Amino acid sequence: MKALVFQGAGGIARQDVPDPGIEAASDAIVRVDAVTICGTDLHIVKGDVPAVEPGRVLGHEAVGTVVEAGGDVRTVRPGDRVLISCVSPCGRCPFCRERRYGQCRGGGGWVLGHTVDGTQAEYVRVPFADLSVHPLPDAVDSFDAVLLADIFPTAYEVGVLNGGVRPGDTVVVVGAGPIGLAAIVTARLYSPGRIVAVDLSESRLAAARSLGADATATAGEGPEQLVADLTDGLGADVVMEAVGVPETFEMCTRMVRPGGRVANIGVHGGPAALHLEDLWIKDVTITTGLVDTTSTPMLLRMMAAGRLPAGELITHRFELGQMEEAYDVFGRAAGTGAIKVVLGGPQHTAVETARFAGAG
Known about the structure:
single chain; disordered C terminus; 15 strands; 7-stranded mixed β-sheet; 6-stranded parallel β-sheet; 29% helix; alpha/beta; 360 residues; globular
């Protein structure tokens, strides 16, 4: 089969690799029908995630069709259309029993495209399938559903829930990429008083406004002063870091009010300064985390009910064979305007075919 393979820092190539097979009774083999690229994939290609070795098939988000299931799999069977989660929990270790699936110590957690071959391929072996794949209702569009594999549960769990967003809060989201935009959408579920988005890109800030941000600012427009002006100098109740660089994390800690919460969502490839000389007296809570995906079933129900505008984040569509082109477009988002790119083969549902007819 064809797959997108990591070649070492700075390199990827779509090439022939062996078809996956069942290795454990809890595995499922899924034909990939729709797949996307994550900002974490870009970090891997840059060399920021040393655990990913050259030769690894990348990707941890997909929608597909089950073609084979191991003997212990009970929740899906061949022919089922499923969402593949970015986290594969064993379900038995101490962390999984606490529903901290991202911290799984039983051979799972974030493994796809990390420690085992991932989803940016024609077929993928999904470990621990009973907890790692979710059957999809016919009414749910595959291209929309793939955004529930990672970005929406990550934004909701690591940003909104960890940040403790409450009605009336002033919420600041630094970084209006896919995760930041998903954080804006899911923060609105809690009726905050206002949401402020900060980014370098005006096109992404426009997307943030369309998805519910009440105020926006580029880095050069004084976002810290804007937040101070909006809060009578106190600072924001919740600030979410959705970029993953030292400068934005430190900006977040300067914008939070005494007693406020900073929720770090971004993937950091280097150290960031923690200015305890300023923060120790402010009673600030800082959270970090890897998504557990425990919210995925709830988010999927919301999507099926038409209450989650995930598809509005998709800006580019490609065929599965255009993986390298899609990486180039997504990696140059500042120039291409890409927010989320989705790739799919010819086996889409009728609703998908109709949706993209004439899209060019």
